Amino acid sequence: MNQQFNLTQVALELAQSTLHEHSFDQLLATVERVIPSDASALLVLQGEQLKPLAIKGLMSDSLGRRFKIVEHPRLEAICKSTLALQFAHDCPLPDPYDGLLLAKTGDIPVHACLGLPLYDKNALLGVLTFDSLNANAFNSISADTLNTLQTLCSAHFKTALELAHYKQHAQHSSALVQELNREALTRDGGEIIGQSPLMQTLKNEIKLVAASNFSVLILGETGVGKELVARNIHLNSARKDQPLIHLNCASLPENLAESEFFGHAKGAFTGAQNSRQGKFQLADGGTLFLDEIGELPLAMQSKLLRVLQSGEIQTVGEDTPKYVDVRVVAATNRNLKEEVAQGRFRSDLYHRLSVYPITVPPLSKREHDITLLAGYFIEQTARKLGIKQLKLSPEAQALLNQYNWPGNVRELEHVISRSALKAKQSQWQNPIITITSEHCDLTPSALQPPIAESRSTANALINQPLKQAVESLQYNIITEQLKQHNYNWSAAARVLELDRANLVRLAKRLGIEVKKTL
What we know:
- The protein has about 525 residues and is an alpha/beta fold.
- The chain has helices at about 5-15, 25-30, 75-80, 145-170, 175-185, 195-210, 225-235, 255-260, 280, 300-310, 335-340, 345-355, 370-385, 395-400, 410-425, 450-460, 465-485, 490-495, 500-510; strands at about 40-45, 50-55, 65-70, 85, 110-120, 125-130, 215-220, 245-250, 285-290, 310-315, 320-325, 325-330, 355-360, 390, 430-435.
- Helices cover about 45% and strands about 15% of the residues.
- The strands form 4 sheets. A 6-stranded antiparallel beta sheet has the order 3-2-1-6-5-4, with helices on both faces. The protein has a 5-stranded parallel beta sheet with strand order 8-9-12-7-13.
- The termini are far apart.
């Protein structure tokens, strides 16, 4: 096909797709008309790393990876080039996609590799990469064609990035947003990984509430990433240049809690040899993140309420009150409404904290995000363990997606770390380390049943009388939660959002053995 005709079509298609919701995927698909390949990727430059925005022919977890440029010589060479760069078929530099091509398992054999750096004037925006198992695949593409294609793609990519930028952060200037993104990505775990509908909703809620000065109550199971949500609220707020201070309420000794919150003067109590600022003074002008707020003693709850109402704090050992400007973001895995009903948490404090409640979904409800998160943790783990290339086998990926993840994202991160260590030990001579199903030590009881089994269970319930079906379902859910929590009735009750005594009574009525497990 005539290359000039192809370029004309490319220009028209790129112009038409500028406002397309999936403009990055459209860009990659359009360029493939001129440069057909077995694998291609569009990556955006973020600080010192490249983040994939669109891929073709690569394993799906590639979208969750972040490629540190200095660790990938081919990507580094493309980023340093001003023109299209084709690597010789016998180039000794390792390919960043070794083991990730859908069309080939293991090392990539002799193949063609082409990179297009995308610029806005002299500023690198990102890169396009192409790999083909045909060593001569790109030889017939002229330099003029590549130069024209690079110019067209750079202009489109710049426009697409700017539109995405303004759409997400219309209330800020683009320079401020770029600095905000750069700061978030330089911190470990600062980016929220996930494309599921529930996570898109969560990200939208974060952006919405971050622009206000409301107190936020973050709810969710252990390990879902509540601290990460708090960090993103701060980073997207007008207080982003001020401190974000963390305080874990569960680890506070009751006799020192007031000092931790409000500070103390020298000699205020035995052992107070020097004056010390509390967390509220340290967070003045910024954000205070109160983790595990449900564990805060009642005596401290009333003192915290006073600060939220008036901004006034009383340093231990001083008579003169001080005023602070602090936004409070709190988090808990407890059902605070139930805690209020049981008299363990102040109702007025609950309402002060929950001006805008946000619920972080469990990992088991985040469809397709498990693969992306696995890719993210794999890249991090490979760097920590000094592994040149670490990948996940299709069987292991399927196993991870079948698991219920009672420990949520934190459990996934730990599973990837342990699995990578085991894989490295057993494959230490291989250039590519592959995590297989055997390396993933997952709890069998948390594996989801096969679809056929789930359907048969559902059909069995449908064919029962309503009361019997409801009781069967209650029996199964309660016994499963008890198993997952090692027969800790209090823990199971919290997950099921029931009072412990009510749960025990319900269990007895359903015929679940209680005496042995209490």
